[in-house]
Specification:
single chain; 312 residues; alpha/beta; TIM Barrel; twelve-stranded mixed beta sheet; 10 helices; 12 strands; binds S-adenosylmethionine; binds iron/sulfur cluster
């Protein structure tokens, strides 16, 4: 069985949340005192392996580990080691970068070489104000270390008017200096970001227009189901944009999400998920069929559930 829905969208990517907890409190993502899942509800490393292994048979090709902050999960290394046994064609990680230094060897051994590191400002005080923790130096140190160790890094930056949109050029120069790809994300109307949206949303088009005042941007070809589109600036600087508000990609979306407590969601904007925890393979097959019919074709305007719970 392949996971293809009635609109001919084939599900081939899975975002996997290891925890909803985090060591930062980014204002657009989490409140200061969030309510977290009970850890006893988390999927075990073996349960992740069982469900994801089955989904590989159904056509999943790319798995990205996320959260919350995946590296705060205490048995992170065990989960990664279990997943490595599956020989997933593409296994990657999205992290705030703060704890990467603990896991270089674990990641290398599991062939997790593509890392997305979230970083919203190159100014210590702005990054601290967004993340509600003084963290820039530690994140930068781990980015440098990752590059030196041969990992392929992308930096994800949520652009917010009046907060960090004055740093677009600084991020391009950071990309030039370090060789990482920087991706500028539009602020999405998910959870806590809803209250910031009106004042702070900046479209990708506006960012591109601003960058074009100084640089020539040359578009690069993109996969049909890619969430990001890319440009080169000069010869060796690559920047990307994720324009999920102004240019939603729902009609070609190929992604499902698995939460830390084993609920599968067809879309980041779905209110409802289906639990695959403690189910038999036969029951799960029915759940996959049902979920195929739950993926919206068009972008839902906004959702109130928080990003950290569903896996960003
Ligand atoms: N903690 C990890 C991190 O920060 O990379 C992984 C989880 S986080 C939810 C994944 C990504 O979602 C981050 O790049 C974060 O900036 C982004 N994000 C969270 N809320 C967002 C929002 N409302 N709009 C756009 N991006 C958002
Ligand atoms: Fe944590 Fe990532 Fe959310 Fe920031 S965006 S609070 S680092 S989960």
């Amino acid at each position: 069985m392949q996971l293809v829905d009635q609109w001919n969208r084939r599900i081939r990517k899975l975002r996997v949340s290891l925890t909803d907890q985090c060591n930062l409190r980014c204002r657009y993502c989490m409140p200061l005192h969030p309510e977290f899942l009970d850890k006893s509800s988390y999927l075990t490393p073996q349960q992740y392996k069982e469900v994801i292994g089955e989904l590989l048979d159904y056509g999943i090709e790319e798995v990205r580990i996320t959260g919350g902050e995946p590296l705060v999960r205490q048995d992170f290394d065990e989960v990664i080691q279990e997943l490595a046994k599956l020989k997933i064609p593409s296994l990657s990680l999205t992290t705030n970068g703060l704890l990467l230094h603990r896991y270089w060897d674990v990641l290398k051994a599991a062939n997790v070489l593509n890392l997305n590191v979230s970083l919203d400002s190159l100014q210590p005080s702005t990054q601290a104000a967004i993340a509600r923790r003084d963290c820039l130096a530690d994140i930068l140190r781990n980015i440098q270390e990752g590059i030196a160790r041969g990992f392929s890094l992308k930096v994800n930056t949520v652009v917010m008017r009046g907060i960090n949109d004055c740093e677009l050029f600084d991020f391009v120069e950071f990309a030039r200096k370090t060789g990482v790809t920087v991706r500028f994300l539009e602020l999405m109307r998910v959870g806590y970001a809803n209250s910031l949206y009106e004042e702070h949303y900046v479209s990708a088009q506006e960012c591109i227009a601003r960058l074009q005042e100084r640089y020539t941007l040359t578009p690069l070809p993109a996969a049909p189901d890619s969430t990001a589109f890319y440009f080169t600036i000069d010869e060796n600087v690559k920047v990307g944009f994720i324009a999920s508000e102004s240019q939603p990609f729902c009609s070609s979306c190929s992604r499902w999400r698995l939460t830390a407590d084993g609920r599968l969601f067809a879309c980041l904007f779905s209110e409802e998920g289906l639990s695959v925890r403690d189910k038999t393979p036969g029951q799960r097959q029915q759940i996959y069929q049902q979920l195929l019919g739950m993926k919206p074709l068009r972008r839902v305007e906004q959702v109130s559930h928080p990003m950290y719970g569903l896996g960003g």
